[in-house]
Sequence to fold (222 residues):
Amino acid sequence: MKKIILFSIATILCCNAIAQISNIKHYYNSLSKSVLIDSLKSKMINTYQDHYIDSGYPIDSIINKGYLAEISSENSVIVLAPEMKNAANYNFEKDIYDFLTVDTVLTKIVYYNNETSTLTLFDLNTGLRKIEYSKKIQKDMNRAWDYVSKEKPDLLMIESWIFKDKNSDNVNLFLVKDGKIYVYRTKYKDTYELNHFIRKFFKEKEFIEHAILNEKGLMLNG
Fold:
């Protein structure tokens, strides 16, 4: 009887995870890279047209070069930013998937250049920017993106503030696959299912406090 109860609980938790992942995937599949890029171009035109108006160069030609060309390439991908909802009701005994959502404003298009170890990102919140990784972590990032390519996840997420390791040298990549989320820690080359990851690397009280502050918009996102 005990085994049946445990099996039933595990089945319910698994179904909850799959249902929430299904919602996230539905949102992901509704996105269009070209629509996001058009939004970026409009934003850049509004921002920079006064600066270039006397240059003699057409603004549309300017913004189609450089970073924009990278995120427009076929090798760029849309990534989501995982966040929590109803964080005040969460504890480590509960399933994180029941409290998981995505921040649509922080949905990004990213392009990773293995040769230069640079990551180009765009979202409607912060616009277009490039991260140049130090030599100390370039190999970690190159290995991580190779790992992502081989795993072929359904979709990719980049850590938000509440899921970030205190160790600044480590970057976490979130891979959605087989109805669950797996966290790949670039510096340590290991992978954990999201529930296991949170319980292993965070203190419960501190994690919940940060999640509540983040939900209220009192912590920085990016």
